[in-house]
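Form 7-S
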Amino acid sequence: MTIVPVDQLSTADLQVDAIYQGGRKGNAGDDPLPKLVRVDSQGGFRYRGKVKGKLDMLVLTTSMNDADWPDELDAETGIFTYFGDNKKPGRDLHDTGRDGNLILRTIFEHSRAGQEGRQVVPPIFLFASAGVSRDVRFLGLAVPGASDLDASEELVAIWRSTKGERFQNYRARFTVIDAARMHRAWVDSIIAGKSDHSLAPDQWQLWRKTGRRKPLIAARTLEYRSRNEQLPSDHDGQAIIDVVRQHFKSRPHAFEHCAAALARLMIPDIAGLDVTRPSRDGGRDAIGQLRVGSGPSGILVDFALEAKCYTPPTAVGVKDMSRLISRLRHRQFGVIVTTSCVDLQAYKEIKEDQHPILVIAAQDIVDLLRRNGRGSVEAVRTWLSEEFPAEHKTQA
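Output:
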């Protein structure tokens, strides 16, 4: 890992995954971005130029740990999801202190306006907290949207509710382009107000001319996840999954309905998913169909789902996985949903033997809930009570 010390910030290139160190005085002056790219030291949206004029540079920063607004970089697809700055009720969507949502609306409008519009979209540099002091990690150079997304999916105003008050915020999706290094000469030309984009990476210049995006893709070297990767590591995540376990502790079959709902969140194109009766399911907790394509050309692919409301150290083992695999017919796939994790041996076997099994483990459940506006214990508890209420026993 490349680490750039604070005394080299003003002359350093921007290198993907490099750590840029800040000061150690314990105040806002420790922020490395003012020295690195000459932007201010506050907020998620930082820029050079004018919001209602011409933006020369846009810097998006994230802590990556806001449970209610989970910014995310999918390294395997190069897609970066970023939430706007209207995160509390009381203001209009675009009436924010640093004009972040107005900036998002503007750059996405320009990106869809052909070559002429793309020429005024500024370079967008992404940084995330490195977890030490105010140090940051450079995530890459981004452009608005993604090639496999419809324009209506690239920038979406979503509703959230806090203490009974409803409000909107943007969810934006960017493509991190295939460029490992931004040379200092290009950055300095932007800072000087004389942007020389001939010094920019080839893939960024290609996007400006043609609109084609080539994402920076980093495939996983291991296809299976360790136990720790499947379980929440943060306290809030652990509390969320504990609430789910406790809600179904005495009603394990009821968790099957919850697992079906979680599968729909993970796979939006599910056309149908029916939870089977415990006495007649033959081992499958639910059977469903995934729609591939749309309209008359679409096809339906069958799948089977099993739900395991386990508490660590109990994990889904080889026996559990074999049961699901044995019930898959030709051209079907399986889904396992667990509030715990899949045992390493079982995980290795399904990957090495190329069984078509989708694993939704505890960490995945937490991520799904957070992405859908349920990032707190209270919100999850309310959702569980409303959607999967406890059965009332009839008095004799």
